[in-house]
Amino acid sequence: MTTGNQISRFQFYHVASDADWHTLNEGDEINRSNVTDESTDGFTIAVTLEKAIHGEGDNLNSFIGLHFGFLGVNEKRRFRSVVITIRFEDVAKPLIDDPEVIKIWPDTEYVWQGMTKEIEDTKSVDGQLKAGAYGGEGSIGGKWQRQEKFVRNTPARLSGNKTLMLRKAGSHKNAMLIRMHENSQEGSGVLRELRAAILVARKHKGAHRFRAHVSIKAEADFRFGVIQGLKKLVGADHCTDPIIFEPGTNFLDEGDIAGINGKEPGVDMVSRYGDAASATELVKINKTLVKQDGEWREVADDAPAARTSSAVNA
Predict the structure, then answer these.
(1) In this predicted model, what pLDDT tens digit does every residue of 177-227 receive, in sequence order?
(2) In this structure, are 306 and 181 located in the same domain?
(3) Buried/exposed code over 11-49 (b: 16+ C-beta within 10 A; e: otherwise)
(4) What is the C-alpha to C-alpha distance for residues 177 and 165, in angstroms, rounded to an integer?
(5) Domain total of the chain
């Protein structure tokens, strides 16, 4: 088994702007990785392949880990919404023998509840890094909460789901769709960093190649200078070079915050990667929040807590 360490290609187009929108375009090598920065008008979109772990023998699973960054120069130039699609297809017989998306993270709808105070994360992974410790001290604290309704002070939302793309029929889902939205009332922007985990099941044993097409559509806000109003940043699927994967050739980045390097790919790998890499605390979907002493608190289902006008069912 070998590992690769090459540069990944992603191409984006900036609509309605004369800015210089640059790309990296380096051929079609296996496991193309490294950060690709697409920058214009104070915005940067960065995409990195972090993990490609393939099962051997009868294990036809492949685990793919991707990192996305969406950076605005300040709060006046920010991403308001982002839609990411990751579509897998077989190289030899596309749309016929495409790998099937089995497990993903994010896998449902989540809320990012921002906090102004420092948060101490006590979850450690293999004694190396605190779970999701991107920036360490001084970074903005927060936690994911899985909810059905969103409290008014929630600044951002995230959802992920499996889907069928280009194929005309069947239940064989070959793609992942991720949506990110800011809270328009607060103008918070979307999350600046996101890691996505995908487990696919291949149809063939051995070094049978497949690829992933990554497409990004982003809506950005311009609020100063001669550029005013809303413009769109679009990564078109037809012009975005795919990542080529070949089972037997893994890609492992330097970090292993989820402790999955060297493991056999399976559904548990997706959960471990999503939890450890995303600074998240996942809670049950059905919950009740009550505002007490200026803070939102969860009330147990059987607790006789007094409801106020600030209470919400989430």
Answers:
(1) 999 888 776 666 777 788 899 999 999 999 999 999 888 888 876 543 333
(2) no
(3) bbbbeebeeebebbeeeeebbbbeebebbbbbbbbbbbb
(4) 10
(5) 2
